[in-house]
Amino acid sequence: MNRNELTPDASPRAAFGARLRRLREARGWTLDDLSERMEYSASHISGVENANRAPTVKFAQRADRALELAGTGETLANDVFRIKSGSLLEGFPEYVLSEGRAAEVRYFETGIIPGLLQTEAYAEALTQSAVKRGTITAEQARERVDVVIERQHALRRTPAPLVMAVLDESCVRRPIGSVAEWDTQLSRLMEFAEQPDTVFQLAPFSMGVRRAFNLPLYILTMPDRSIVAYAESATRGHLERDGKFVAPILSTYHQLQAHALSQPDSVAMIRQIREGTS
Fold it and tell me: 109 — phi, psi (to 5°)?
């Protein structure tokens, strides 16, 4: 294979290729060795290393697994997020990097299922609707779906983080995708609730003003027990690290959980929706 002498500072793509090559050669692997482990052709890997091919999230995920980087804070997938951050809301890539290292993850979402709980079909239906509206390109849509998949993979690490999700009832009353795809998405929520490191609750419409938040909110507890919060507007996201601002948000989140349905009652509501009895 042809080998270019890369200058990592030349471009993000060159930096990615140089790092991939460095990681491969540190293990004494040839391109063929990595090819067997990643199930990508040696020529494809060579193209990425030489900055002739753009790395995708899927490619980076396979490289991370082959190189035993998955679940760490130094994944190649994180590098791809940085390269592709132009297709994501400002501030979100920074949040994703923190989410991948968090010991505890708390969500409140309204209107749509949060990314960590989305099926691929659900994520694709959302992004394709944005393509039809002309707000993103088809390539950006694929990148956003890839980010959803990578975020879910990053949280299947050992030890697994505690993930708590409170969804407004609107999330499970708004069908997305085909009838079968929507049923599969609701099934995914029920499966999530059964996991040992998860808490799942619905905030029913009957909560009224007791629903503490009107916009989506994410709260992370990091390994050093520091707490950060992330919120979005229509144009950008913001990761708040100052504890004096985050602590009251966490307290309000606890109040939200106290008023929301219990996990068994939340699962029962979803089961009723799937059966058409609610």
Answer: -135, 145
